[in-house]
Amino acid sequence: QAAWTRGRDIARARTVARRAPRGAMRFRPCIDIHQGQVKQIVGGTLKDEGEGPVTNFEATQPSGFFAERYQADGLPGGHVIMLGATPESRAAGPMPQGG
Fold it and tell me: Is the dihedral of CA 41, 27, 15, 61 positive or negative?
């Protein structure tokens, strides 16, 4: 994604988050960690049995990188989802606090 497109998307998300009326749906950033990697998992493919989830995207950056970006970009309400409590997922790195 081009830098100018990313900047435009961030500005749009920030504006929507600030202007959303009380009770309206707001963008909330999420970091999914699976087997120690930050991933985007295809919905409905994570199951207790059978094959593992289908991964749409796997980041090379650690989870803290994304947490810091969301905070710097003024996107509040972010959360982390650990998909499977493996030692690799637990060691994925500390999250910045506050903001």
Answer: negative
In the numeric block, which tokens belong to residue 90? 């637990």
Asked if residue 29 lies in contact with residue 74, where contact means CB atoms within 8 angstroms, the answer is no
In angstroms, the Cα distances linking 83 to 5, 20, 24, 36, 41 are 30, 30, 28, 9, 10
Tell me, what's the pLDDT at 99?
Answer: 46
Let me know: does 73 contact 17? Beta carbons within 8 Å: no
What average pLDDT is seen over the chain?
74
Question: Residue 37's beta-bridge partner residues?
Answer: 34
User: How distant, in Å, are the alpha carbons of 1, 29, 89 from that of 12?
Assistant: 16, 14, 31
Q: Is the pTM of this model over 0.85?
A: no
Percentage of the chain exceeding pLDDT 70: 61
Order of strands, sheet of 37-41, starting from the edge strand that comes earlier in the sequence: 55-58, 37-41, 30-34, 79-83
42/87 Cα distance (integer angstroms): 23
